[in-house]
Specification:
The chain is an alpha+beta fold and 232 residues long. The chain contains four helices and nine strands, in the order E-E-H-E-H-E-E-H-E-E-E-E-H.
Length: 232
């Protein structure tokens, strides 16, 4: 059976290629999956349309990749890593680390598999790394590995912790002071109220005493008048 391939089939044929294949393979696999059609006049038109579409997509993809390459070319990605003597890294920097660093620092996203890194980086320093966007488009970026200042970062974090604790302590003191002042104010108000109440009681008592005195005077005056009247 002679067929014309509509799509690339690895290790068999490329799209647009006419080839003789086994009948069973053509009828049961290639044609049902629309990977190929029988080689006839109709197939020529289908192939032409498919090839034009494929060429257009390839051209658009290549244009996008060239634009991405221009944006990426010469960019520097700085990665921090812990290191020991002579700048030897405790771990290693992989193409996944570079892809992540590139995305964070530039916003350009690429698959880690297109980053041409023969082996992981294990030494502090600067490296020129190629990125294979297509077979022919390979921009280069600069990857710089610097020593992570772990001690300094920890010290800064510790200092921040102290300041935070101090601020919280000061805030707590302020709250306690405010609470104490509020309690003191309540005590003062209560004392003032009690003092006022005491004054009222004293005044009432004084008025009561005065009333008694008046009654006593009136009684004495009455008795005196009676005696005067008896004498007369």
């Amino acid at each position: 059976m002679k067929v014309v391939f509509l799509e690339d089939v690895p290790n068999v044929a490329e799209a647009g290629e006419m080839k003789e294949v086994a009948d069973g393979y053509g009828r049961n696999f290639l044609i049902p999956r629309r990977l190929a059609v029988l080689a006839d006049a109709k197939a020529a038109n289908i192939i032409e349309a498919r090839l034009k579409k494929k060429a257009r997509i390839q051209a658009e993809t290549e244009a996008e990749m060239r634009e991405l390459a221009q944006q990426m070319e010469g960019k520097e990605v700085i990665l921090k890593a812990r290191s020991g003597a002579k700048g030897q890294l405790y771990g290693s920097i992989t193409n996944a680390d570079i892809a992540e660093g590139l995305s964070k620092s530039t916003g350009l996203v690429v698959d880690k598999r297109v980053i041409e890194l023969e082996e992981p980086i294990r030494q502090v320093g600067s490296y020129e790394i190629a990125i294979r966007l297509t077979q022919d488009i390979m921009p280069k970026i600069k990857v710089t590995i610097v020593e992570e200042e772990e001690g300094k970062e920890k010290e800064e974090e510790k200092e921040k912790g102290k300041k935070r604790a101090k601020a919280e302590k000061t805030e707590e003191k302020g709250k306690k002071k405010a609470k104490a002042e509020k309690t003191e104010e309540k005590v003062k108000k209560k004392a003032k109220a009690e003092k006022t109440e005491e004054k009222v009681k004293k005044r009432a008592k004084a008025e009561k005493t005065e009333e008694k005195v008046k009654k006593t005077k009136k009684k004495v005056a009455g008795e005196k008048a009676e005696k005067q009247e008896e004498k007369g």
